[in-house]
Amino acid sequence: MSQSNITSPNTQGGGVKRAAEPEAATNEEKRFHTDTTATTPDETTEVVRRKRRKYALLLSYCGKGYLGMQRNPGYRTIEDDLLTAMLHADLMTEEGCTCPQMFHFQRAARTDKGVSAARQVVSVKLPEDVPIPDMVVKINQHLCSQIRVMAIRRATKGFNCKSWCDSRTYSYMCPTFAFAPEVEKATEDYRITPEVLDGLRNILKLYEGTHNFHNFTARKKAQDASANRYIMDIDCGQPFERNGLEWLLVKIKGQSFMLHQIRKMVGLAMAISRGLVGPEVIARAWRESRLDVPIAPGLGLVLEEPHYNKYNKRYGSDGIHEPLTWEDEKQKIEEFREENIDSCIIETEIRDKSMLQWLSTLPLHHFSTSEVTLPKNTSGLSSKTKGSDDEAEDEDEDDLDQYRISPQKSKETPVTSGIGKLKEITNGHIGTDVEKNFNILSNMDQTKGEASSVSEAKCLNS
């Protein structure tokens, strides 16, 4: 008698129950299919699916040249490059690369276009027959220098990096002249004073707590429950000099953030610090009326880290799973950030002067409940520099062109139709009778189409 048929008495209910199946039986994942290229039954192949486990991947990347984290067909995204690298590393199937949900692929945060990440977490099922250090090396071999897998941790079966995330920390790095009082000219020679720095910290503290942030995002009504967000901590560090400019890093920690929320929070703080509006405008922003809130440039926004306090407390010390704290990778992450993220932000700001240009449009905002009306081409600025509400909601088509994936002529596949397509599907295995009948039908369709064209022409002439 097989083990699966053995029954044991149920001491509680007085009945019998089936014994638990061995774990090996539940983990055995096999499937069979016939190879489409096989010409005889003997060439039928057996395909064994590799056993997979849930893992948490730690990523660091520079978002320059990418249309955000989430995959967007036809555009360069971090997610698309990562999945392609896993495919080439033989850790992902073609079906999984096309439909990542097959392997429970999920991201902790969806960064917007041009936004970088010092620590981004992805959860996905990967083959368990490959050692973790080898997986890191193999994936990085197929990634560009802007993206790096820093670590991989084994996670629980039900781990989802988005739903298990307790909070997220972002940072915004910008020149200190963005906070200069209006009486002082905002130039690259400006150095922030202790009084202005203390005032800025007091302004930022007004954001802490649970508030209705419907005025700090796009297409969100005040009545939506999802507009209420909890800001745990927000502060700025000490200023530092780099490449002739003085910089400031603002860090924001919250449960979750909406589209453009952080950029609008920083933009409004800049307007208050410069004296264009009083700090009471923040309290007015919590109300139901729509408020004109400027959106700061995207350059400088970085995802610092998703936090997993509850997960670490529950599973981090169970002897099987490691806590998702990434302390061992701290030095490696800082080196990558210095070389790829911070340097890119600094060089781009010095070259494009996007913050100086944006500050010139800041006085055009009236911070009232009526709609903002900015000139379309104020001072010759591009739409992506102005930072108006229109830019927040609608992407400029010309702006998106830089993220498009250009088709490579060498890899183009000629479009085949008719009998050629039929031969392609059947790998050339069609009979002469089938080909003859197919050609007859094609000629009939062509004749019918020509007749239809003649009839249409007669109707137009009449």
From TrEMBL:
Active site as annotated: D112
Acidic residues bias locations: 390-400
Chain spans, region Disordered: 1-46, 372-422
Location, primary (coarse class): nucleus
Protein name according to UniProt: Pseudouridylate synthase 1 homolog
Alphabetic keyword roster: Isomerase, mRNA processing, Nucleus, tRNA processing
Subcellular localization, as worded in the UniProt entry: Nucleus
Top-level EC class: isomerase
Recorded superkingdom: Eukaryota
One Gene Ontology term from the biological process aspect of the record: tRNA pseudouridine synthesis
